[in-house]
Specification:
Number of domains: 2
Radius of gyration: 31 Å
Strand content: 15-25%
Structural class: alpha+beta
Shape: elongated
Number of helices: 9
């Protein structure tokens, strides 16, 4: 039991349980104040002509209070477990406030719109209450998202951070042998893609929307393969096209040597991810690159953006390969 309690943010839990309940009580009290001016039964659904579905006053109020509590709890309680990311907890706390206030607004607008009307069939939802309440719900939800400070606890993420710091302290060269960077094509290339793909897609979409959308998606996918996220460390080399799709994975133990060089993309089959004459390449442009020679005789070419970055990347991969060969262990890229 103690372990379960320790996994929850008790301050957030108290607020998550209490706020929807108090809001529901407030709605019930205010509804009772309007009781004498409301028709019987009251409308619960409306169309352009007025009320279309009806229910007794008590059912409207009890059902509305239940909706406030239920949906408020569903959203608020997502922010209580401390194992979840801090950003998610803050967003869910703000969303819980927004949802519970919005439901209350809709219910209140329905009652106010029927106040003083003898027949619920002639009533409409009050637009002023609905607009002002909805605006307040959104604004207060955003404020809560930024104002809520999750209860600080030691989590698994802290364990990982502590372990990473311990490794850096024990091995000062670890930071020197780690590189994270992005490479991308020149801006003129993306302008060319916009002119040759997105503009025609916009024109085609006027006549054939699905074909225009297909052409636009093809252009965006092509542009995505002219971005690459590079990760190099003691485990080896990993490259992700568009920052997401893994296209190159070279363990340090498989590297024979790495050398910075200037390449022509045409020599490797062109831009993007290519297999050409026994070589695998992820080139976003011609120019500074790193060519990795594997123990099995294969080659890997990777754009590096600048000459300085190419020299640094090649140095990291050579040191990683030397260390892996000395250890005789098949490290995986991304490991330490």
């Amino acid at each position: 039991m103690g372990t379960f309690r320790d996994s929850l943010d008790t301050r957030a839990l108290r607020f998550a349980l209490a706020f929807p309940l108090l809001l529901a009580v407030g709605f019930v009290v205010c509804a009772q104040m309007l009781r004498n001016s409301l028709p019987d039964p009251v409308a619960v659904m409306w169309n352009a002509d007025g009320g279309s579905s009806f229910a007794p006053f008590g059912a409207y109020v009890a059902g509305g209070a239940g909706l406030i509590v239920f949906f408020g709890w569903v959203a608020f309680l997502q922010s209580v477990p401390i194992s979840r990311p801090v950003v998610m907890r803050r967003v869910m706390m703000g969303l819980g406030l927004m949802v519970s206030l919005f439901i209350t607004t809709v219910l209140a607008a329905g009652l106010v719109g029927q106040s003083g009307v003898g027949d619920a069939r002639l009533s409409h939802v009050d637009p002023i209450v609905l607009a002002m309440g909805s605006g307040a719900a959104v604004a207060l939800g955003v404020v809560m998202t930024f104002a809520f400070k999750p209860d600080p606890r030691w989590t698994q993420e802290d364990d990982h951070a502590l372990e990473a710091e311990r490794l850096r302290a024990a091995d000062p060269d670890l930071a020197r042998d780690t590189l994270r960077m992005w490479v991308h094509a020149r801006s003129s290339v993306f302008i060319m893609i916009i002119i040759s793909a997105l503009f025609p897609a916009a024109l085609i979409a006027v006549a054939v929307p699905w074909l225009g959308a297909l052409l636009a998606v093809a252009g965006l996918v092509g542009a995505g393969f002219l971005f690459a996220r590079v990760r190099a460390d003691r485990g080896g080399l990993q490259v992700f096209a568009g920052g997401l799709v893994p296209v190159l994975n070279v363990p340090a133990v498989d590297i024979a040597a790495a050398a910075p060089t200037d390449v022509k993309a045409a020599d490797y089959g062109g831009w993007g991810w290519r297999h050409h004459e026994g070589a695998t390449a992820m080139l976003v442009s011609s120019g500074p690159a790193v060519v990795v020679r594997r123990l099995n005789g294969g080659r890997v070419a990777l754009s590096a953006g600048t000459t300085v970055a190419a020299d640094k990347l090649a140095g990291i991969l050579n040191r990683a390969a030397e260390r892996a060969h000395q250890d005789g262990q098949p490290h995986q890229p991304g490991s330490r």
